[in-house]
Amino acid sequence: MEEQQVRAVMEEAMEIGRRQIPHGAVATYIPELGKARKDALGLCIALPDGTLYKAGDTNIRFTIQSISKVISLCKALELRGAEEVFVHVGMEPSGEAFNSIVELDLQANRPFNPMINSGAIAVESTIIDYVSFEDMLAYSQLLCDDPGITLNRQVYHSEMNSCDRNRAIAYLLKSKEIITANVDNSIELYTKLCSLNVTAESLANFALLLANGGIRPNTGERLLAEDTVRTVLSIMLTCGMYDGSGRFAVEVGVPTKSGVGGGLMASVYGKCGIGIFGPSLDKKGNCIAGCEMMKQLSSKLGLHLF
Fold this sequence. Notes:
Elements: H1 3-20, E1 42-46, E2 52-56, E3 62-63, H2 68-80, H3 82-88, H4 102-106, H5 117-125, H6 133-143, H7 153-160, H8 164-175, H9 183-194, E4 197-198, H10 200-211, H11 226-239, H12 245-251, E5 256-258, E6 263-268, E7 272-277, H13 288-301
Antiparallel strand pairs: 1-2, 1-7, 3-4, 5-6, 6-7
Helix pairs in contact: 1-13, 2-3, 2-5, 2-6, 2-11, 5-8, 5-9, 7-9, 8-9
């Protein structure tokens, strides 16, 4: 990637993104998230040679929300192995909203995939007896190459006070014997991980680690097994953008995960990691500016898998 070309495409993408912001809305079902600055927008692209391209609000801290599901899945695969993890959760797109409970009750004996709330809770139930929140915080800092990641206590308490649906999901999973862990402990860990403060830059760092096959480029240290990376990126491609994942895969063709805090993390295998922050969301809960920005980046920089 030539610097001049990348910077020009980034500026075009930022302008396209800014035009989308008024058509979205910040998340309000978690009251603390409703306080976000709707017009904030940042884009960071991390390359294997250590180059970081930045535009806009790349160092604003915001909560990682559902992008933490990727971290949990990495840890579960590394700690328990794929065979054990996928006893509790499937690998298929759900076609339903990220917090849906209907298909779990009526159509399946386990959550469809690890990128929806029910799936993430099931994944975390496989590791909760082996790791503490402090362990997972340190793990998140490691994968994102960001020692500044902390728990946002205001968001955490706001989420815990408004997580009745997630509690219902967890108790349904318990009733189906999909999880055997303590429900309260599972919800606490899940919510704390969603409440970690990150930046667009730290998401780009994590995306780059995945794009580099689990090896940190600047040190050559392997942090994730090749099989873990392959599984995680495959599920991000098919399930990472909630019930908009299929269209996004066709139009953008890059494994990406979103969070209702406004984050997008996209991993272009062998090329780069991309982090985006924009708290204005579309109706599916994805960063509305980021989705259009990723279309532009994919098209102009030739990032589509196919």
